[in-house]
Known about the structure:
Oligomer: single chain
Helix content: over 70%
Structural class: mainly alpha
Shape: globular
Amino acid sequence: MPKTEELLQGNLGRAFFHYLVTSVAGMLIFAFYVLVDTLFIGRILGSEGLAALNIALPIFGLLTGVGLLLGVGGAAAMSVSLGENNQREVTALFSTAVTLGIISVITITFVGVAFQRDLINFLGGSGVNTPMVRHYILPVVIFSFSFIFTQLLTPFIRHDGAPVLAMWSTIIGGLTNIVLDALFMVVFRWGMLGASLATIVASLVSLTLLIRHLPRSTLLRFKGGQVSWQRVKRIILNGGASLVMELSSGVVMFSFNRVLLGSLGELGVAAYGVIANYSLIALAIFSGVGQAVQPISSINYGAGQVQRARQARNFALGISLALGILFYGIGLAFPRALTFFFVQATPELLAISVYGIRLYFLAFLFAGLNVTMGAYFQSIELRQRSLSISLLRGFVLIVTGLVVWPRWFGLAGVWITVPVAELGTLFYVLVKEREASRLGNLAYGWAGDRS
């Protein structure tokens, strides 16, 4: 059975499981790009290196966010058009996304190199070891094209019926990162520069594997002169939630770094570095679950099979809830082991980290549900709903919470900010779900939302 027909008519559970395994595996290995860097840096450079890395991580949020803005936004629109049997629009959307990617790379690279000192100071680099921050950030900015286009092409290739290739490109890149981290940091002793170069080469390997798919694809063809304002608008509006979600990771890290530097100094930032990396893993897995539902929901929604799209979403919600309970249980039971996995912690650092893990990990009970709902909305082009979820859980409730909760509850207020933000976002989703059910809207949409 052809791939398109299988998504529209085949066994839904089997199709979803196929995308689930490949998407989660791919996102999990992608998280290891940063995770392995953190492990090596924590072991070799200690808390000072860990703090410097945590300052630099928002740059990854920006590059990943831009890539997903264009990739997820364009791929969702492509699959809806494919379900509508509009082959010409499929090619035009891919060409437009690639063009926007080229423009983004040129802009980010120029700004990052020309204003590197201002960028580092803005991120908080003046509060930790600034040379370490610079050695990590500058090479990543120079090779920003690799990170952006890896994230841009992956959703398109997944929607093109090749999720296994998307998975293996990430796995091979991740394994490359591990080997090169050991070589550059342990053998060559290149420090933060070695960690940065290892991540860059790994990304280049992933990108090379993805590009090899393009000549074999009948859909992903680049043609000039395809850019139009309507297509640009469609891609950006569809993918806006992905950009906000990735940028929000950077905003969360930036905001936490600022608060913790002011209250606990570099030790607090190092403790948050441990927690942030476990959060990165959990959110990568949740994102993989969300990505698994997108190709199925998009093409079925485009073909008018709304109930089938919702059924795939419900599979993802159940899995997200189970994973959230598992992650919280691990944090509650093994906070000391989770800390020592990354860094040889002093008693002071261990105490801060253990306390933070037990409170912060509450967020995982709700985060997976929010991520899945946001991904589902993107897949059926309900842009305002997906964007609202990303804004609430990533910007509005986090920034507001870091202002309010620490004043009321001290250090505990810092750690509960993200759990409260995720819970508040979930409450918003449930309220809107009830409204949609009362109105009998099977697509879970609102008038004027899809524009």
